[in-house]
Amino acid sequence: MIELENITKSFGGVNALSGVSLSIRTGECHALMGENGAGKSTLGKVLAGIHRPDGGTIRIGGREHVFRSPRDAMLAGVGMVHQELAFCPQLSVAENLHLGRYPRRGGMLDRIAMRSHARTLLQPVGAESIDVDQPISALSTAQEQLVQIAAAVGSEADVLIFDEPTSSLAEPDAQRLFTLIDSLKAQGKTIIYVSHRMPEIFRLCDRISVLRDGKHVGTIDRAAANNDDLVKMMVGRSVETIAPKHIDQPVGQVALSVKSIARRGVFDDISFAVRAGEIVGLAGLIGSGRSEVARAIFGLDKIDAGRITLAGNSLASGDLRGAMRAGVCLVPEDRKRQGLVLMMGGQQNVSLSLLDRLRRLLWLDRRKQRLIASELFARLNVKTPSLDDPVSSLSGGNQQKVVLAKWLARRPKLLIVDEPTRGVDVGAKRAIHELLDELALSGIPILLISSELPELIALSTRVLVMRSGKMVGELPHAQATQESVLRLMTGV
After folding, report:
1. Rounded to whole angstroms, how far apart are CA atoms 114 and 117?
2. Counting CB atoms within 10 angstroms of each CB, which of 229, 239, 241, 256 has the fewest?
3. Which candidate, 392, 421, 427, places its Cα nearest to that of 404?
4. pLDDT tens digits, residue range 3-50?
5. CATH superfamily label, 246-490
């Protein structure tokens, strides 16, 4: 179905793709794997018409194509679900689902047909409860991901590229997506699946192609592949999962206390505590209220009832500045929209959380700014040509490390991390896990939110579970399994 021959692509002198050649069969699910920066997403965007290759040939169904725009690719039967959400935020869900293909009646936009078709598109991905008239900007990251999947599948493309589609989805939603992909394969659709998650690859894909440093390392059948071999192909070495040390250490005094907090229509009667030196996991499905509770603690959203204290001091409702002064730090789930200013350099992004401490009279202490950034970049092993290079040029894993550096610079008294390894490779994921373990060992209390249950269970001293805005259970580390957590999440 797809033949790629000697595809090359450079950005500012950096080779993103170097002579990549591979073929993908009709009706198969073909995995693309590799570290962040290996060229997976770039190759997908070349095939989807977003990037024009510097050289090479693209054939689809035996016909050679030169895509000058995503519309050209769409007309050739190629659709894509992006890792970084790509919508017009102020347009409605229905309008976004029909970008470039609005239904018309008598030369005018047929809004009734558009809304009806939008609801039909949302049903296969289990998102029929989303109001199609609300703006995309009002949705959570996970809901946006479901809408994007619905848009790609609804385009009726013959080739669908999924770039980290489950990175913000809870397990039941991910399982629904897998069933949908099985159905698409049965219809003869060709799927290109980009993911760092091994279980998904082995569940869905027929063959696996690995990229490293912009080059095609090799393609193997799923039946002949195993985790260790794939990791070695991706990074050139074996990478083992960590055994967190903080789990076996005694915890300290209560640092964060949340008592009976409520926000009308979002969550109600939420109470829990986080002690010094422990990582408390917060699990739940889309719409359970996990991220909203984190936002309330950080002062981004006001609460209607209840009390939040840190180290015995009350945090005022909706007081973001007060929460930051008290030492609350939040690594958000969407690093590109909520955690970084993409066109600014790494050291400028790090200093955003420190402007009150870097000010010298009316000026910024640039020497101190550079010193703090360079120390944190060295500690977190951020790979960047320069501290001043825009973070938009960095890989996803390095961008996530910059977000972590920004908040570590404030020396947090409470660190909230929401989806800390979303869309990062196995090497960067291990580094982030080691960092969180190290921070907990140093006595910092951490509230961890993750849709990846193995990660949440492995790192957490305790796992709290939310369902429909309520706290429905707590599991100590020894009793937390994927099955026990899923039972609480789903109510089954």
Report:
1. 5
2. 241
3. 421
4. 999 999 987 667 888 899 999 999 999 999 887 678 888 899 999 998
5. P-loop containing nucleotide triphosphate hydrolases (3.40.50.300)
Tokens of 430: 């291990």
Domain 2-235 classification at class level: alpha beta
N- to C-terminal Cα distance for the chain? 42
Report if pTM > 0.70.
no
What is the C-alpha to C-alpha distance for residues 363 and 277, in angstroms, rounded to an integer? 37
Under DSSP, is residue 458 helix (H, G, I), strand (E, B) or coil?
A: helix
3-state SS string for 139-193: CCHHHHHHHHHHHHHHCCCCEEEEECCCCCCCHHHHHHHHHHHHHHHHCCCEEEE
Residue 446 structure tokens: 């951490």
The single-letter code of the amino acid at 234 is M
Residue 461 Rama label (left phi>0; alpha psi -120 to 50; beta): alpha
Q: Which two tokens stand for residue 332?
A: 């958000």
Mean pLDDT of the chain: 88
Read off φ and ψ for residue 416, nearest 5 degrees.
-105, 125
Same fold, 2-235 and 246-490: yes
Half-sphere exposure (CA, 13 Å, Cβ side) for 27?
3
Cα–Cα nearest to 4, from 207, 99, 19: 19
For residue 460, pLDDT over 90 is answered with yes
User: Residue 164 and residue 396: Cα distance in Å, rounded?
Assistant: 12
Q: How far apart are CA 190 and CA 109, in angstroms?
A: 32
Backbone angles phi, psi at 445, to 5 degrees: -75, 135
Dist. CA 351–CA 344, nearest whole Å: 11
Report the length, in residues, of the chain.
Answer: 492
* 149 token code pair: 């999947």
Which ranges of 381-443 would DSSP assign to H, the alpha helix? 396-408, 426-441
